[in-house]
């Protein structure tokens, strides 16, 4: 899909509904393309429409007429089903955003580096706002699956990540660890150190997830948004001192 960034969006579906075949799309004028984009409230119609029209005029492969007619009916049927679904998802996301922004803990979670408007509500929903639920960070880490579990059999001992955990929470923390590397130098340094120790990409991110969970737990229990300066000072205070 070279014309639009995503297939699962209203502008793409309406365009495909208006011009369901390559022949119909090539025959469309710039004005017709503009009309479709205006239906969905595209912010830069006059800028985008000529580019789409120009792209459509480029040489492209075409299917047999029989195949085109067959797939045309299927495509229109799917578009008719997807349009209401896309609209409902958009309404659902809007309501999630409203509930998150009006929540007392929203500033805590949205202050996390890289959390954004999707990950921050996920973390709040998974952890909740009942501070009495957890008496220590270790309990939350066990629930999230970021804490290591010791396996022992005879003389064999090995620490591994637990499989029985709240997987949506573990995934949310994993995504936080992944995105935070792009914004927090210390997070990327920690990840690189784990990789240098021989840890795989996923294991290194899980280890970083556990660090973020400890930070988040402290933020959550003290009702304090994330502050890089406070974290840096705390990290310096707990750093090993040379003899």
UniProtKB/TrEMBL annotation:
<dbReference type="InterPro" id="IPR003346">
    <property type="entry name" value="Transposase_20"/>
</dbReference>
<protein>
    <recommendedName>
        <fullName>Transposase IS116/IS110/IS902 C-terminal domain-containing protein</fullName>
    </recommendedName>
</protein>
<feature type="domain" description="Transposase IS116/IS110/IS902 C-terminal">
    <location>
        <begin position="107"/>
        <end position="192"/>
    </location>
</feature>
<dbReference type="Pfam" id="PF02371">
    <property type="entry name" value="Transposase_20"/>
</dbReference>
<dbReference type="GO" id="GO:0003677">
    <property type="term" value="F:DNA binding"/>
</dbReference>
<dbReference type="GO" id="GO:0004803">
    <property type="term" value="F:transposase activity"/>
</dbReference>
<dbReference type="InterPro" id="IPR047650">
    <property type="entry name" value="Transpos_IS110"/>
</dbReference>
<dbReference type="GO" id="GO:0006313">
    <property type="term" value="P:DNA transposition"/>
</dbReference>
């Amino acid at each position: 899909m070279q014309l639009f960034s995503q297939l699962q969006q209203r502008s793409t579906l309406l365009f495909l509904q208006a011009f369901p075949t390559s022949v119909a799309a090539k025959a469309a004028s710039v004005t017709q393309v503009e009309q479709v984009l205006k239906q969905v409230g595209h912010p830069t119609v006059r800028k985008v429409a000529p580019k789409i029209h120009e792209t459509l005029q480029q040489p492209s492969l075409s299917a047999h007429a029989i195949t085109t007619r067959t797939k045309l009916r299927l495509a229109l049927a799917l578009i008719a089903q997807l349009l209401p679904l896309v609209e409902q998802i958009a309404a659902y996301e809007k309501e999630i955003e409203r509930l998150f922004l009006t929540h007392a803990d929203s500033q805590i979670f949205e202050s996390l580096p890289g959390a954004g408007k999707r990950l921050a509500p996920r973390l709040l929903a998974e952890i909740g706002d009942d501070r009495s639920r957890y008496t220590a960070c270790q309990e939350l880490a066990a629930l999230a699956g970021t804490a290591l579990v010791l396996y022992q059999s005879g003389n064999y001992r090995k620490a591994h990540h637990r499989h029985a955990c709240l997987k949506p929470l573990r995934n949310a923390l994993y995504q936080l660890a992944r995105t935070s590397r792009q914004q927090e130098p210390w997070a990327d340094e920690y990840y690189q150190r784990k990789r240098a120790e021989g840890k795989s990409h996923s294991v290194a991110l899980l280890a970083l997830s556990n660090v973020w969970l400890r930070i988040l737990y402290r933020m959550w229990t003290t009702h304090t948004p994330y502050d890089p300066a406070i974290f840096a000072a705390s990290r310096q205070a707990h750093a090993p001192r040379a003899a």
